[in-house]
Structures are given as structure tokens and as C-alpha cells.
Structure of BREX-1 system phosphatase PglZ type B:
Amino acid sequence: MTSSPPNTLVDAIEGSLKQALRSADGVAPPVALLWTDADGQWAPLMPALQKALPQLYVLGSYAPDDRHGPVIWLRCIVDRTLPDVSPSEGVVPILYLPRVGRQDLRAAGDCPPELQPLIELQYRGAVWHQRNGRDWSVDAFLMSDDGLALDVARDARTREAMLRSLPLLAAEPLAGLRGRRLEADDFDRLAIGDPVRDLLTWLSDTDVFQSRSDAGRWATFRDVCVRQFGFDADADGTQAAADALLHGGGKWDEVWQRFCDAPKLYPGVSSALRQARPRDLLGLADHSRRPGLNEEMEDKLCKALEAVLSMPHAQACDKVVALDKEHRERRGWVWAQLGESPYAVALEPLGRLAAAAKTTLGGVTVEAMAADYATSGWHCDRAAMEALAATKPGATNGLITKVARALYEPWLDRSARRFQELMSAPSVDPAKLVSPVKSERDTCVLFADGLRFDVGAILHERLEAQGFRVRMSHRIAPIPTVTATAKPVASPAHPVCKGKTDADDFSPAIASTGQVANASRLRDAMARADVEVLSADQSAMATGSEGGGWTEAGKLDALGHSLDALLVRQIDPEVDALVERIAGLLGAGWSRVRVVTDHGWLLLPGGLPKVALSPHLVATKWARCAAVKGGSTPELPTYPWYWNPILRIASPPGIGAFVANTEYAHGGVSLQECVIPDLVVEHGEQAPTASIVAVTWRGMRCRVAVSSNTQELMVDLRLNWKHSASSIVATTKELAANGEASLAVVDDKYEGAAASVVVYDSAGRILDNKPTTVGEDT
């Protein structure tokens, strides 16, 4: 579930737009993404972006073939009343609004009448903007860490050249723009001429290229084609170019590589290659250049996957593993980037799922089987979730979902039945397997509702990738595996709770009052026990609190109940949000963050198998658990309620559910519901901290005072605080023992310039920065 860095500006914008859509809460997906651009800076880039994003529409004069239209037409796109031009189901339209600022829409009373139909889309949709709420300008996107993080000079000439070259910058490989300061000449150089780019542009859309070329430019292009590429654009046409590109060699290999770097910018090249005439199929050096071959192999793979659905489980697993080996090479072909190899791409997680589903989890005790699952068994769940998220809604997604279910369901059910058999052994007391969470000084407990073990493993990986030290273990959830029963056990308030004489709502009571132990009462009990209870947006360090801290984050369980199988598309943003919350808590001074949860869950597209249960036998019935009435004896497995073992909880065998068509559920007894992660997160090393407390100037020399927990820090003065190449001092200085450093500016021309004092550590990480004016009178 990771993505590769963007190759071009268009790739980066596409990724940023997707990120803006992921910020929605998942319950009601945005109906549209608004792209406001008060100055119309981005308008020259629209033709290239619309090639890459068929769901991108532009406010303007009515030209439906170009996906341009007035406000009322855009509203029809959003409301899906124009099926011929609206995006396919499940694809959110992006509305580019040139000369419209975000403030124009937010100030509803002052909004021009012609724009007013767009106002309510701010609330039903999403808006693409910077973290500070401002519209994305071109220079902000190029320089921001949330954009391309390029080092761009800030003078007026550079800015004019950057905007002038924007259409050419769209396809420029980003690798060539990094590692140096970009100035006006760098952007102007893009317009001088790029024969490879021009050739691909012409091959992609000959008519448009020629219509935009005057006689002189066309003559130059023809001459370049003859001299560098060995064909005549007029006499030989696109057929000769496509034939040469297919066979490759010499300069044509450079053309092919450029196409592979940004294929979405040249959509017509695929069509041209489909018409190419190979001289000898056996003699082709690179068969991956044939789009027709990729299509043939996708069709063959589709039929093979359909056949898997009728195979016995073991044979189906072997077949999918073999298909993955056969087709994995195609995931590196350019056609996969263009979305033309969906089955080959989906085979990657399907292959892992098939390999894992062939393995039977071991262990002769509950503890041993839980340990086996926590060590390796969860990989099967993760592969299943990634397979389900691998393709977009449509026919391809339907087949992949069926194959994933065919591979996953038997393993899931077999593992659950074995686990239930062990849990039902006379010698097993399920309550004694449970380890309640205790408070600890300097540790903030972060409760993440429904953090299943495989999702916890993803969180573990993301945290380690950011340099945190993480210890991950597992706990057993109490029965039934629902929040009402399990959340008190996952909190330091556990000692104040007790069981009741009924389990109708699965909730314990507060021992001192007999009231139901709901969320607010649990928080009150923790506060009385000297636990610092933080709201969702607080990161403050407790002062003198022996009980540490408690906070909550994440909404995986709520999303699961709302979205069912579509939850798989929300796992990544949920994990990202947890990483950000944990980093914030550690940054605020907590020594450790302990991430705990209440239960996991089962997810199976198409629904869990239905199990009948007579309603007169139970007091409460949920999808995966039921409170048994008095002396009733349902013909189903029953388990003691954690909070009062005299009361019994009925649970369906295997992965069954008491409610039909249930895709997402918990409350029962399975590894996925009962074996839950427990993570302790700390800084990888003692993190250096620094704060600039004073900057004073005497002529062209400034003195900087820093408050820090270490002396091994450097101080610099930069025009752009993010980029070391913008330094304007004779030499950077190491922070002295007294916490001060003196910096001399090398050139008087910088007098009066806006700059930033920067403090950074040995790894180059910036710990603090403070704006200043060079030579200001202090």
C-alpha cells in the first residue's frame, strides 16, 4: 500500500489531488474536488492535466468535447445528469475554477451570482488547498514540502519564466530539477527545444501539434526528424515513427524511455503503437512495447482467474501463485502505469494471499495459535485487504473480489474453527488470557478503535520508517469482542468496572455507582486515578501525573460499520492519521506512546455465511455474538462473558454471522477478532530540540542565541530556510557552549533582504527557523 515518488509535475499534482480526496471522513465521500485558482496560474497546464485526468473539468465557455463549461454545466457533471460526459461511477469529478478564489466561495453573501451554485459544493465536496488554507499557487506547489520541494529562486524574473514555461514543465522529469537551485535561465531552457518531447507530442496527437506549429516550426521539426530519427514526418507520417519506436535502437530508445517516464502525457502513443507493423515478431528486442501483447495477456489472465473460481481451494491457491509468476513482469511494463494491466497488478497481492492461504496455522493451545498468528498468520489478512483494494470499481474489481474471497474464505473459516475448538477446551478460561492495560508514568496510552493486527503491523512499519523505535506484541481481547465489553479492559479504568447480572448490552458497570461504564464515565474514572485525559487535538505533556496519559484516535471500526468491504480503501489514510497523532504526542514530550485497541474484525466481501439462531433463546443478538437468556441452551458454541462468567455469550461457528449479508463484523471468536496488537513507540534516539530565542544584528553580522538540549547543532542564514543552497553567510557556525553563534553575511547586496536563521542537527534536520531582515537595526 505504498506509492512511488512522482516522475513529473503532472504525476505530483495527480497524487496531491488524490490526497485531498482522502481527507474526507469516509462516511460520505466528497461529490467533487474544487480547485480554486484566483490568478488563473494553472490554466496553461490544463491540456496536459486533462490528458492524465479524464475526471478533470474546467470552468469556462461551453466546449463539452474539451470538458469545458459554465457553472451550471459543472453542476450537472457533479449531479451525474449528463451521463455522456460525467465520470464513471465511483470517480470523483475535479472542477478547476480559473479566476475564482476560495474566498470568493466562502464569502457567500459577496459571491458573484454566476458562481453561487458552486458554494454548497464546499461542504459536500473537498477543496484542494495548502495546509494554511490558501489556494495552491504554482510557486508554492513547486517549493513546498507538500508539493515538489524544489529549490526555486524567489526573484520576479524567475517567477515569470516559471509561469511561462509551465506547459513545458509538465512533462519534464523531476529528477533533473532536483539537487540545484532553479533560476530563470533553467526554466527558459525548457522552451529552447526538446526533440524527443516534440516527437512524442506529435505522435500522440498529430493534428493538434501541426495546428499549433507555424511553417517555420514545422519545417524545423521535419528536419530534426530526418537528421536525428531517420524518417520524414511529412512523407512517412506517424506509421513510420510508430514502427521505429516499436523496434527501438539508437535515439528511439531515448524516445521510449521518455514515454515510459510520463506515459499519461502522451495518450495517443498507445494508439499509434497498436498500428505499428513489426518486421519480425521473433526479432523484437523488447516485446513489452506491444500494447496488443499486453491486451492479449490480460484477456488470457482474465479467463484463467475465472477458472480459479471453480477449483478446489488448494488447487486454486497453486494456480494463482503460478499465474503471479507468469505475469509479474508485466507490472513493470508501461501499460501498467496507464491502467491497462489491472489483472496483472492485482495478482501481486493475490499471489501473496494464495501462498499464505495454503498454510494452516499451528499450535496446540490458544496461546500457541495466537502467537503463530501474531508472527506470520496476519500476512494472509493483509494480502486479502490489499487485493480487495487493488482495482477500481468495475468489472475487473468484481472478478478480483470473487477470486480474493475464493482464496481467503476457506482459510479464514478453517482458522476460526480451530481457534474456537481450543478456546472451548475445558481447561481454558478465556478471561485469564486477557491482560488489562495499566497506566504508567510518562506514557500516553493511545486507544485506536478496531485496530486489527494486520493494520497494526502496517502502523508498525510506517512508524519505523520515520525513525521511531517500536516494540509490537499481542494481547487477547475479552469475549465478546465488542467495544462495550473490551474498551474498559484496554483502559487504565479497568479496576473500577465490574460485571452486571445481565449482559444484554455487553457493558460492565462502574463498581461504585452501578451505572453503565460508558466512554465519559471511563474518562472520569481515569482522571480520578491521576491519568491525564487528552482530547483528540491535544498533545500536551502531563505535569506531575503519576498515571500517564490517555487519548483516542482513529475510526476504523466506525468506517467498517458504515462502509462494509469498502473499508479496505480507507486503511491507508487511517494509518497515516495515527502516525501523525503518535508523532505529535512524542514531539510534545511524552517518553512513550502505547497504542492499544479493543478488538479486531472480520471482513469478507459478499457477506459472512448466515447462521440461524432462534430469537427466543437470546436477549441480545448482534452479527457475531448474542447474550443467552437465563437457562437457554442454543445449539451453538457459547463462552463465558468476561465481566460475569456465569452469563453466556453465543457465537456462530467458524466465520458465520447471525445477520444475513454482513460483510464487516466483530464480537465473535476468531484470530482476527481476538488477537489484537499492542505497540510501544519511542523516539529512536534522544531527539535534539532547539529554539531560537534571539537574533541581533550589528552591521552585516548577526548574533544568534539558541536554547537547546545539545551543543552539536549548526546555525545558518538562508534566503529560503528549507534549502541549504540559499545560504548567504561566509560559513555556517557550530553552536557554542553558551548557546550562541555569530554569522557574517558575505555580500552587501543582501542588506535589507528577507532571510531566515536556521538551526539544524548533524543529519541536516531543521529544528527551528526564525525570519529576520539582513542588517536590520537591532
